[in-house]
Structures are given as structure tokens and as C-alpha cells.
Design brief:
The protein is mainly beta. The protein has two helices and 20 strands.
Length: 428
């Protein structure tokens, strides 16, 4: 894949400079960031230091789009990631050490985008978000065909989640997602977006990326939900609800029913000096006494960033995945969380955000002392953003988790997790 990325990037550059100027328009863009951070006590204790890390990483994204005319585009996005000081043998990139000559070009997106009347089609490797990321926010290979009719748009989605391969009955191991997500505008202020997603496989045990399905045969998993968004002058409100149903047959001739749900809501108020915001979400957990699968769960593709320590945030999603003990990170399930935050803008180039998060498991877990606990803790996050020059931003991040017993597990050496760091970023 890395060699293919290098070849593809080179080929696209050649094409962009050799096709006659009248034939198309070339659009270039990208994103760059450097992050340096330190995360401590993420295990909820300071004895083992098992997840303590201080590191620096870099990400570069390069975008190239060939616009042939208003109804045809060819979109490509490439990504280069590494941790400073890493080499190809560490699994943390391949060009961060002395010499910096590793091969680590990833193909993030490559798809054709075209219109046929009111129908827009995106076919290839692309990105999509469903239900704000509570259900899906990732890249995939497949097709999104969207019917546009005035204030109504109806995307029809097919994602190839897993390819079983070649050979007798190998197609049985295929996993496919099928989705629909119509969007309706009610006046100028309200948007309603019902959605559905269905995942099917005749034998999901072949999907080796998802260990929870290793003993599964036929998988019938579906989600149905609704997004609601409203904006009135300086006030905005949003809500999302999702129900998870379906079933899966196991290799021991038993079956499991899915019965889970997620509810979320948030608000924002913008003012001249900044604003206030908040949100709440609840995603069901697993009841050990119930035979149904009751934890809200998506096999792959879910990603919703929230708190800095418990929900990845700006610094947490890195090569060392330093989320706090028992927190779901961006995989929202078995969790109840509430947030309130304030943002102030004391100067044109300066923004300061202060957030507080309360979080608990939806279902109790057993601690080292044998007690049943659910409270993960209360987290305080501070982010200071300053525009160094036009287009280049510097973020300073500090976060502290006043850990609950579900985080520390009542370890004799329990300690509160904390992290701090910085991010330098630009988009073009």
C-alpha cells in the first residue's frame, strides 16, 4: 500500500502537468500539523506508568482535485504520518528518525464525483459522516448516490466494509454496509435528517479486524435514527437519537439479538465576546444478566471526539492512543456524559475555551476491591488558540481528570490522569 501510494501520487502529478490546460482545472490543498504532548496516569494509578508517554508527531495531508467541468471531478487525498524519532519497525510511521527516508504515503481518498441531472454520485475511496460520528465518521470504499430536489437531498450509501477474497465460498465472508440519510430543510432555520444503516454478512467471522465477531456466522445488524438541527440568530440546538437492532447467529448454533440505543443533545449560544455551549449523550451498556447484546456498538467506522482525556480530543488520537482507563475514547458506548463550556475571544487572533465534563459508565464495573462502580470522573479542559500568522494556528492544551472509582479501579496507588501539549496547524 505504501509503494502504491507513492506511485499513485507521482502519476497524478504527471497527469496534472501534462493534460492540456483547457481540459481541466487543477485544485490543490492540504493540511499540516505538529503535536507535542505528555499524558500521565492514564491507567488511574502512578505505580506501573504503563500508559505514560511524552512524544511528538506530525501529519501531512495533500489534496489534489481534477475539475473537468461543473459535472465531473476526480478527487484524491494523500496522508503522511509519523511520530518523531520513529522508524518503520516501530509501527509509528517510517520517516521520523535520523535520515527521515521511510516510505509512508497513505491513500486516504480517491474517487470520482459526477452529476447526472439531479443525481450526484461519488464512487471510490471517500469519507462520510452519519449521525455526527455517533454512528459513522471515517473513510471507506464504496458509492454515495445523492438525489437532490430543492430543499430535500437523499443519499443512498453502499460501503464495502470487508472483502472475503477469492475462492470457494469466500464471498460468504464479505461484509457490506447499506445506508440512507435523507435531509429536509424546514424553512431557513431547521434541518431534519432521518437515517438508517444496515450491516450484513453471511459469515462475519472472517472480518478479522473486529474480534467481537470471531465466533459469528450470519450478521444482520441495523441502526435507525434521527438528527435534528435548529439555528435562530445566535442560538443553536441539536439532537440525535439512534436505535440498534438485528441479530447474529453464532457458530455454536445459538443466536444473539441486538437491542441498544443512543441519545444525544447539545446547544450553543454565540455572542460578541465568545459564547457558551454544552451537550449530553447516553449510550447503553451491556447487562450481564440479559442474553441480548445491549451495549451500543458499531463494528467499525464510529468516531465521535468529545473530552480531551476520556474522548480523545485534540491530543488523544495518536500513535500511542492514550485514553484514560475504561473510557470509550471516540467509540461511544456504555457511557453517560455531560458537558458545559465557555469560549471567550479577548482579541481577534486569540480564543480561549474552558470545558467541564462529567462521565460515568452506563453499567457498573467491578473494581479491584470487588465493588461495583460507574463514575469515571469529572474532567476540566483548557484550550488556548492563537493565530501566529494568517493561516497558521497554535493550540495550547491542558486537561485534568478528577478520576472516579471506575477509572482508578480503587487501586492502592490511584492517581488522577492529566495531559498537556501543543498543536501547530495550518490548512490550505
Amino acid at each position: 500500500m505504501k509503494k502504491l501510494g507513492m506511485v499513485a501520487l507521482a502519476a497524478l502529478l504527471v497527469v496534472s502537468f501534462t493534460i492540456p490546460a483547457w481540459a481541466m482545472e487543477s485544485q490543490f490543498g492540504g493540511y499540516f500539523r505538529i503535536r507535542a504532548w505528555s499524558a500521565q496516569n492514564m491507567t488511574g494509578e502512578d505505580r506501573t506508568e504503563a500508559k505514560d508517554v511524552t512524544a511528538t508527531d506530525v501529519r501531512t495531508r495533500l489534496y489534489y482535485t481534477a475539475v473537468f467541468h461543473e459535472n465531473l471531478k476526480f478527487v484524491n487525498k494523500f496522508e503522511l504520518d509519523t511520530a518523531f524519532g520513529s522508524d518503520k519497525d516501530k509501527g509509528t510511521g517510517g520517516w521520523g528518525d535520523i535520515g527521515a527516508d521511510g516510505v509512508n504515503v497513505e491513500i486516504k481518498n480517491s474517487y470520482v464525483d459526477f452529476n447526472i441531472g439531479p443525481l450526484n454520485v461519488k464512487a471510490g475511496a471517500q469519507g462520510a459522516t452519519l449521525a455526527r460520528g455517533f454512528l459513522f465518521s471515517d473513510d471507506f470504499s464504496g458509492i454515495i448516490a445523492t438525489i437532490n430536489a430543492g430543499s430535500v437531498s437523499i443519499p443512498l450509501i453502499w460501503m464495502k466494509a470487508w472483502e472475503g477474497g477469492m475462492g470457494k465460498d469466500q464471498n460468504d465472508f464479505d461484509v457490506d454496509y447499506y445506508g440512507i440519510a435523507p435531509s429536509f430543510n424546514v424553512g431557513d432555520n431547521i434541518k431534519i435528517n432521518p437515517f438508517g444503516l444496515y450491516a450484513y454478512s453471511k459469515d462475519a467471522s472472517g472480518w478479522t479486524q473486529v474480534g467481537a465477531l470471531s465466533n459469528t456466522e450470519e450478521l444482520n445488524l441495523w441502526y435507525a435514527g434521527l438528527n435534528f438541527d435548529a439555528k435562530f440568530d445566535m442560538f443553536s440546538l441539536w439532537a440525535t437519537g439512534i436505535y440498534q437492532g438485528g441479530d447474529m447467529d453464532m457458530k455454536d448454533n445459538t443466536s444473539v439479538d441486538f437491542s441498544a440505543w443512543l441519545a444525544a443533545a447539545g446547544f450553543g449560544m454565540d455572542m460578541n465576546w465568545g459564547g457558551v455551549h454544552g451537550q449530553f449523550f447516553y449510550a447503553t451498556g451491556e447487562d450481564a444478566e440479559d442474553p441480548d447484546w445491549e451495549k451500543f456498538w458499531v463494528p467499525r467506522g464510529q468516531s465521535y471526539y468529545w473530552a480531551e482525556i476520556m474522548g480523545y480530543g485534540i491530543l488523544g488520537d495518536n500513535y500511542y492512543a492514550t485514553g484514560s482507563n475504561n473510557a470509550p475514547n471516540d467509540q461511544v458506548g456504555d457511557i453517560m456524559a455531560a458537558n458545559f463550556g465557555v469560549t471567550v475571544k479577548p482579541a481577534d487572533k486569540l480564543k480561549i475555551s474552558l470545558d467541564a465534563w462529567y462521565a460515568a459508565k452506563a453499567e457498573d464495573i467491578v473494581t479491584l476491591k470487588g465493588n461495583e462502580e460507574s463514575y469515571l470522573g469529572t474532567e476540566v479542559d483548557l484550550v488556548i488558540t492563537y493565530q501566529l500568522v494568517q493561516g497558521l494556528n497554535l493550540d495550547l492544551v491542558g486537561a485534568y481528570l478528577f478520576a472516579g472509582d471506575a477509572t482508578t479501579m480503587e487501586d492502592p496507588d490511584e492517581a488522577d490522569p492529566y495531559e498537556f501539549g501543543t498543536r501547530l496547524s495550518l490548512s490550505f
